[in-house]
Amino acid sequence: MRGKSNHAAAALLLVFVLIAQGAATVAQQRARARTAAAPAKKSKAQLERERRANLRRIRETSRILEQTQKQKQASLGQLNALKEKLTVQKSVISSISSELKYIESDVRQTATQVQQTQQSLAQLKAEYARLIYASSKTANSYNRIMFLFAADSFNQLMLRLRYIRQYSEVRQKQAAQISSTQQHLSHQLTGLTEKKQEKSTLLTTQVAESRNLLTLKTQQDQVVTKLSQQEEGLRQELAERQQAVSRLDNLIAERVREEIARAARVARAAAARAAAARAAKAAAARTAPSANPGRSSEPATARTNTSSAAAEDAPAEEAPAERTDRVTLTPETAVLSSSFADNRGRLLWPVGRGFISQRFGRHSHPVLKNVIVENRGVDIQTSAGEPVRAIFDGKVLTVASIAGMNNIVMIQHGEYFTVYAKLRSVSVSEGQTVHMRQQIGTVYTSPEGTSELQFQVWRNSANLNPENWLSRIR
């Protein structure tokens, strides 16, 4: 009898050990699954945001391209829009490929987790079967009573009584754990199915975007072929542009020189006024009435001569050195200039929509062979009638009109200048103070249907790359 009771106790203890091991195994597997999945989701979300941003750029570029295609004749503006759309289309396909890699990794991880959960479920069921088999040996009340009274001491009796009371709870917990594991497995299988569907959808999207890319390449080749047949017209257009750029450069250089000279004159005048005020103050101090009444009868002429001599003897104020290469800043313009410099790489775009169709510096002509063009700024192609806005607070230095560049607005920001060319209309005047985001005009649209803004940044007489100053986000 005692042997049977000891056997039942051993079986019960074995059940507790098996349950604890099974619970620990399941918990470890779930923890590993959460740890492995967390970083992938974040990277995948970033890729999705990039893809949405690229799709938005494609829609904007498509609208611009449609405006250039309204004219039957091919144009450089149409070619630039096609190039931009091709570039963004490639970025979209690259983002989709990266997303697919993450999804494939998720599918593999989830499949592994499903397999592990299935193994854990099988182990739990086997342990539960052993528990049921062990409990069947002590199922009747007679065996339980004999198990209790076979105890060697009262403490052992109480311990065996507690085991019996917990026996049913253990079975319930084991059954609940099996049910929970089954639910977790069902959830994993559902997630696996969803990820496979997402993968299938992305693959379909990738195929469609690749077809769009091939269509765009075909259109680009057609436009290049048409433009190559217009070489004489393109060379004439290039010559006219170079003349317009030269006129604009001369205008900018002249205005900068004038502003440097004007600021220097203002600084000299301010220094002269300050020196005169100090001299007058010193002379007044020296010619003040003396406390000695005997000297009060001194002739006025003598006092005047003394004052003149004192003014001559006073040290002359050293005039500031005149700079011919930079604008002399007042305290107010120095703050504005410093603030402009501090916002390098974060400045507002001059238009709300569009893309850079021609970058800063020297580069090959998009059609003409062995021809190098130089750009003092950046050309931003946008929609017809797009508002042009000031990128920072400042003062309108110049409003002019140049053949080939249409209307020009030049804004001063301390020792920095921004130039907005190819404007159809202008809504500011010279000397006017403007603020960031304030509209200064609208973009001009050429007869070929290209709406393009020429934008430049200068520091005194030095030409700067606007792309280094503008924000990456429009």
UniProtKB/TrEMBL annotation:
GO terms for molecular function: metalloendopeptidase activity. InterPro entries: Cell_wall_metabolism_enzyme, Dup_hybrid_motif, M23ase_b-sheet_dom. Pfam families: Peptidase_M23. Residues 65-134, 224-273 form a coiled coil. CDD domains: M23_peptidase. Keywords: Coiled coil, Signal. Residues 375-466 form the M23ase beta-sheet core domain. Residues 284-328 are annotated as: Disordered. Residues 1-22 form the signal peptide. Residues 289-299 have a biased composition (Polar residues). Residues 300-313 have a biased composition (Low complexity). This is Peptidase M23. It comes from Hymenobacter persicinus.
